Description:
Number of strands: 9
Radius of gyration: 21 Å
Helix content: 10-25%
Order of helices and strands: HEEEEEEEEE
CATH architecture of the largest domain: Sandwich
Amino acid sequence: MSKKSTGVRKNDTKPKETGINNHIARFLQEASKDFSAQAPIKVLAGPMVYGFNIIIGPDGSPKFETFGNLSHAGAKEHGPGRDHLIDVIDRDNKITVLAELPGTLRENLTIRASESELIIEASADGKRYRRTIVLPRVVDPDTASAQLNNGVLEVIFNKAYLS
């Protein structure tokens, strides 16, 4: 009776990294090095948040965006506040952008859009916020609809179909 080879050597505990798994593994490895190299974190009042979104671009390559009130070594320093959470949803013939804007009133909010990006400017409680979001597909900015409800901004675009 012959022994079957599984393709994994007995001492191999790490799976092969391919495609997006390779990008994610490298990103996490860099982030953990950066955090371990930092001096102890000062205790902040309120929650401490650090996270990332992974978006697959039209060319198939992943884009990593970080958010939160903590930063890793080499990144820009954040103030006492934190970045607002942003989510971009690409479904069917629509692009939806959800943005966390706690305490923002409609009269303190400005939204501008082009075919490829959305710019949000807001102020609340004496703090100003500005963010430019690169959209994953070309949109028709004239079809934009927006609503602000309980501190969450939702902007919906129709995708533009180029001929």
